[in-house]
Every structure is written in C-alpha cells, then in structure tokens.
Amino acid sequence: MKKISAETIIEVPFYDTDLMDVVWHGNYVKYLEVARCDLLSKIGYTYNDMRNEGLAYPVATMELKYIKPAKFGQKLKVVTEITEYDPALYIKYEIFDFESGEKLFKAKSMQICINAKTGESIYVPPEKFVEKLEEYA
Question: Which residue segment(s) compose the domain that 88 sits in?
Fold first, then answer.
C-alpha cells in the first residue's frame, strides 16, 4: 500500500491548558480528531460523504503515548497516516513541535465501518473510499 498521509497544523488555545500550564491530556484526542478530519478532507472522502452513503466509522480502539507536554500558544504539527483500511481503518498519529520538530505525542486508532441505521459492522471498505484513497496515494 502506498503511503497515505497528511500534515495538520494546530496552535494550542488557552482553554486547552490546565493549572500546570500544559495541554490537558484529554485534549490530545481532540487534536487527533481534527487531524483525522483534515486527512479525510484532503483525501476527498469526509464524514459527510460517509453519512450520505448511510455509513459511519466509529473509533473502536485508541492507543496513546504522551512523550512531552504541549503548552499554550505552541504550534503543533500533527502527521496522520492510514496504515490499513481493509477491513478496518487504522490510523497512526504523531504530534511534533512545529518549530523544533521534537516529537511530543504518538497514537494509533482503529475504526470500523458500520451501517449507520442498523449499527451492523461492514467488513469491506466502501468503494468510493477506496477510489479516493487510490487517487490520493
């Protein structure tokens, strides 16, 4: 499989920090979601496209590794990469300090395609999604 990846830049807002002046740990999941949506948008197959096809891709598992804290005002580069998409969607994430390139965080997620009305799992990726992935790669 060809590399399918994207970069997303996020600047840490004040309201994402805690009393220790660092990003509260739960907000990293939000950054992953922002980057995942950006990746899907760049590929050309968004959550709205899924919804229009009667599909959803809920997150089934996540693995998170905190390396070094991010702080208010810090510019972050989030690199997302689809490592597999059949039968489930596996995405790898790395968050770096934009200026220094130092790695701050890494994660993996697995999402399963489901029928949005019934909630039943679909064990093959949607044709339109595969076409967009092949065009992007």
Answer: 4-136
Q: How confident is the model at residue 1 (pLDDT cuts 50, 70, 90)?
A: confident
CATH of residue 66: 3.10.129.10
Residues in the chain: 137
Share of the chain above pLDDT 90, in %: 96
Burial class (CB in 10 A: 0-12, 13-18, 19+), 41: middle
Distance, in Å, from the CA atom of 71 to the CA atom of 126, rounded to the nearest integer, reads 39
DSSP annotation of 16: G
Average pLDDT over residues 123-127: 95
Number of domains in the chain: 1
pLDDT of 118 reads 97
> Quick one: 27 exposed, middle or buried, by C-beta within 10 A (0-12, 13-18, 19+)?
middle
Query: Against a cut of 0.70, is the pTM above it?
Result: yes
Transcribe 60-107 into DSSP letters: EEEEEEE-S--BTT-EEEEEEEEEE-SSSEEEEEEEEETTT--EEEEE
